């Protein structure tokens, strides 16, 4: 039963792929030295531009979605590998959902703590929505709607991300209800909010970057 463990390692590697850093490098900057210092879509949008920010969002979203999809398809992938190399596979049965949430958590950790960048990455919001989308797309759309609505009011990405991350567990527990997946989304969202602690400090000081005032973080 080594196969799902290999997929767990791949989930971390996927999450740690440093999209924001690489897009920044292509624009000739080190994104970690500008704005909030995060390698996320927002900081790239702020310091490189709209298209670069959208590219980072889409790629980081895909990292989360693929990590989950890959583990959900573990038995299929394993069968494919087994038939190619001619060995006997052990089917992953009742604990597959634990591997799925493991892959999700490792993708989140990989994104915010990438080994390639001295463990300093992004805030796992885009990767988190990618994951949520694969677990329950209705909850993901509802969380995204909350993100948009709060963005329309305050025009501050961190406030919207924190609000959406606070709502996502409630949405999962009510719309989906599966104990394993809902517990994971709860833990994942607490992790995402914890990653925003410097933003929370700036929100309280009144110095957080807002797309309304163009104030610097
Ligand atoms: O640079 O510290 P910064 O101001 O960049 O960045 C703060 C920001 C970091 O996040 C990002 C990603 C931007 C994503 C935009 C669209 C997100 C829509 C969705 C929300 C739902 C989140 C729920 C997570 C569930 C696991 O915050």
TrEMBL record:
Subcellular location: Cell membrane
Signal peptide boundaries: none
Pfam families reported in the protein's UniProt record: G3P_acyltransf
The keyword Transit peptide belongs to this UniProt entry's keyword annotation: no
Enzyme Commission number: 2.3.1.275
Pathway, per record: Lipid metabolism; phospholipid metabolism
Ranges annotated as spanning the membrane: 92-109, 129-149, 156-173, 179-195
Catalyzed chemical reaction(s): an acyl phosphate + sn-glycerol 3-phosphate = a 1-acyl-sn-glycero-3-phosphate + phosphate
InterPro entries in the record: G3P_acylTferase_PlsY
Keywords tagged on the record: Acyltransferase, Cell membrane, Lipid biosynthesis, Lipid metabolism, Membrane, Phospholipid biosynthesis, Phospholipid metabolism, Transferase, Transmembrane, Transmembrane helix
Enzyme class: transferase
Membrane topology qualifier: Multi-pass membrane protein
GO molecular function, one term: glycerol-3-phosphate O-acyltransferase activity
Main location class: membrane
Similarity comment text for this entry: Belongs to the PlsY family.
Subunit structure: Probably interacts with PlsX.
NCBIfam families, sorted: glycerol-3-phosphate 1-O-acyltransferase PlsY
PANTHER family (alphabetical): GLYCEROL-3-PHOSPHATE ACYLTRANSFERASE-RELATED (PTHR30309:SF0), INNER MEMBRANE PROTEIN YGIH (PTHR30309)
Role, per record: Catalyzes the transfer of an acyl group from acyl-phosphate (acyl-PO(4)) to glycerol-3-phosphate (G3P) to form lysophosphatidic acid (LPA). This enzyme utilizes acyl-phosphate as fatty acyl donor, but not acyl-CoA or acyl-ACP.
Protein name, UniProt field: Glycerol-3-phosphate acyltransferase
Species in which this protein is naturally found: Phormidium tenue FACHB-1050
């Amino acid at each position: 039963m080594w196969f799902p463990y290999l997929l767990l390692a791949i989930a971390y590697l996927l999450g740690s792929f440093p999209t924001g850093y690489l897009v920044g490098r292509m624009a000739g900057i080190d994104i970690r030295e500008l704005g909030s210092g995060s390698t996320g879509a927002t900081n790239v949008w702020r310091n490189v531009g709209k298209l670069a920010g959208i590219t980072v969002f889409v790629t980081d979203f895909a990292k989360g979605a693929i990590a989950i999809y890959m583990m959900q398809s573990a038995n299929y992938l394993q069968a494919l590998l087994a038939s190619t190399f001619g060995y006997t596979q052990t089917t992953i049965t009742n604990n597959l959902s634990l591997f799925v949430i493991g892959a999700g958590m490792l993708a989140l950790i990989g994104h915010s703590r990438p080994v390639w960048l001295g463990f300093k990455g992004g805030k796992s919001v885009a990767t988190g929505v990618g994951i949520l989308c694969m677990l329950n797309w209705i909850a993901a759309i509802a969380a995204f709607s909350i993100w948009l609505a709060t963005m329309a009011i305050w025009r501050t990405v961190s406030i919207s991300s924190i609000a959406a991350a606070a709502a996502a567990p409630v949405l999962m527990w009510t719309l989906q209800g599966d104990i394993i997946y809902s517990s994971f989304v709860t833990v994942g969202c607490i992790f995402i909010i914890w990653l925003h602690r410097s933003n929370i400090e700036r929100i309280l000081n009144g110095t957080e970057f807002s797309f309304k005032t163009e104030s610097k973080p």
